[in-house]
Structures are given as C-alpha cells and as structure tokens.
Amino acid sequence: MALLEAILFSSLWAFGLGQLKSEQPVISVTGVRDKSVVISCKVSSQDFSNEYIHWYRHKPNQGIEHLAYVVTVPALKDLGGKKNKIEARKDVRTSTSTLNIRFLQKEDEATYYCAWWIFGGGTKLIVTLPDRSLDGDMSPKPTIFLPSIDEINLHEAGTHLCLLEKFFPDVIKVYWKEKNGNKVLESQQGNIIKTNDTYMKFSWLTVTKNSMDNELVCIVKHENNKRGIDQEILFPSIENNKRGIDQEILFPSINKEVTTHACVKKGSDSLQLQLTNTCACYTYLLLLLKSLVYFVIISFCVCRRTAVCGHGKSS
C-alpha cells in the first residue's frame, strides 16, 4: 500500500509539473552472491546537478524502504551489517544516477526504484550462486504462430501468438504494436512458466477484420537481449497470410543467429491436422478393441479353468 501511495503521489506531481521523467531502462539485473551490481536511472531535468535523487527498494509483502539520496557527492551507507553496502552517485554529463550494491546476498533481492519528483519504473535485482553459469545465451528464444485460415473465415478475426522460451531471469516484458506505429495494443499475457533452470512465456494478440491489413510487431524487453536491444518480432498481415504469400520473419540484425520457427496454419495444414487426428482416433479405438478382445479371451480362460478345478474338487 505504501508503494502504491508513493507512486500515486509521484504521478500527481508529474501531472502538475509537466514532462518530468525518471527512467530505469533495465527491468532487471542479475548479480552473483558476494559480488556487486549497478542499477542506473536516467533523469530528465534542466538542473540535474542540484537535484536530490533518492533510491528506494521494495521487497514482496513489505513496505517501501528508503535507502539513500545523492545531491552532489557520492552517498555511502551501511546496510545489513555491511559497511558501505550501497553507494549512490550522479553523473551530470549524462543526467544519470546509479546505485551500487555490494556484497550481494539473497536477501538483497528486491525491486529498486529511483525517485526525483516521480518514481522510475523499477529494476528487479536477482542474486544467483557463484556456481550458476550465466555465460550461455539466456535471451528469450521466440517462436511465432500465425492465425489459421479457418479462424479467419469463421470469425473474421485472427490470433497471433508469440512463444518465448529458454530465458533467464524470469523478469520479462512483452507488448505489441503495429509496424511503424507507436500505440501499444491490448494483448493477452500468459503466465511465466519455469522449465528446468530457465523460463518460458507466451503472449497473444487477436485482431479483427478492420486490422487484417496491418503488420504487427511483438516487442520483447529482457535483461539478456543482445546488446540490450529489445527484440522486435514481425508478424505479417493476415491478408497476406490468407492469400498464401510467402512470409518472412524479421528480427533486428543483432538477433539473426536466433533460430526461430513460424507455424503458418493454412487451410491445407488444418486439413492435414484433422486427418492426423482422425487417424490417431481410429488407431486408439483399434487398440482399445484389441485390448477388449484379449480381456474377454483371458476372462473366459480363467473362468473355465476355475470351473474345471471346482468340478474336480467336488468329485
């Protein structure tokens, strides 16, 4: 509740003061236990050198906690029994404030916020053990699913689905826009699911007949995207898909090495799927019938043997 009140208060100030911004470009940062991490915050101010920049943290089911503030000189603070555990700084040249957290422990996991009149979006800190390997590619691996012709013809609408797999950590933001558009579209978000040591998530967007000519982009924000660039996954227009025009899935040049498959569910694919399901159904029924015949034969043999044995005893 305290966090919500603080954000509401800061939002009212932002409305009254105009285009004030405190931006935290990274939604999460992963650090190794006993090491250090740095969280940054970009502030839009004409007099940044004299501004008071505050840092807070919020743990689940707890109130928001003020950590430190910085004006001109770096601010050091002890925390959790560690001397100079945190350090807040300002870089006047870039209008950026940073929070350095040292001697990382599991209890340091929280969402950290910068604040200058308004709160930043927050950066979640994840602390891993030293033996956890983070050298591999932990960025989200996308697979796209295009609308089926049957859905388009029957409902005059189409559902685009973006599946993201094998990423770490679990902090991820997915949203949709029209290609070359700025408006964020209303989409649906699935839950984040843990698979072994990584995570998966899917998001989908349904468009109506009026928007079938528009190409769509699924935008993925994640800590481990290559060079920190958001993935932009292009979905072709439904009309092109419906006409059977060859499609191309486009990614930023940084993501060309990511292997991605498109499942284009055209009418022929739907027919093939239907035939496959029908064959599977008949195969299941055949096996079931076969099992039933075996059961009858075995039951008959058992009953006959029981009757013979019983007759022998009575005589």
- Rounded to the nearest angstrom, the radius of gyration is 29 Å
Q: What order do the SSEs take from the amino end to the carboxyl end, as H and E? A: HEEEEEEEEEEEEHEEEEEEEEHEH
Largest sheet: 6 strands, mixed
Average per-residue pLDDT, rounded, comes to: 79
Q: Give the CA-based shape.
A: flat
Unreliable stretches, pLDDT < 50, 5 or more residues? 1-18, 245-284
Distance between the termini: 87 Å
For the secondary structure, the number of strands is 21
> Given the helix and strand composition, which structural class is it?
alpha+beta
- Percentage of residues assigned to helices: 10-25%
Helix count, DSSP H or I runs of 4 or more residues: 4
Beta fraction: 35-45%
Structural overview:
The protein is an alpha+beta fold. It is 24% helix and 38% strand. It is built from four helices and 21 strands. The protein has helices at residues 2-17, 149-155, 238-242, 267-314; strands at residues 21-23, 28-32, 37-44, 53-58, 64-70, 75-79, 82-91, 96-101, 111-116, 118-119, 123-128, 141-146, 157-167, 172-178, 184-185, 188-189, 193-195, 198-208, 216-222, 231-235, 262-264. It is flat.
What tags apply to this protein structure?
single chain, alpha+beta, 6-stranded mixed beta sheet, disordered N terminus, 315 residues, 21 strands, 4 helices
What's the short version?
With 315 residues, this protein is an alpha+beta fold. The chain has helices at 2-17, 149-155, 238-242, 267-314; strands at 21-23, 28-32, 37-44, 53-58, 64-70, 75-79, 82-91, 96-101, 111-116, 118-119, 123-128, 141-146, 157-167, 172-178, 184-185, 188-189, 193-195, 198-208, 216-222, 231-235, 262-264. The longest helix is centred in the C-terminal third of the chain and has 48 residues, at 267-314.
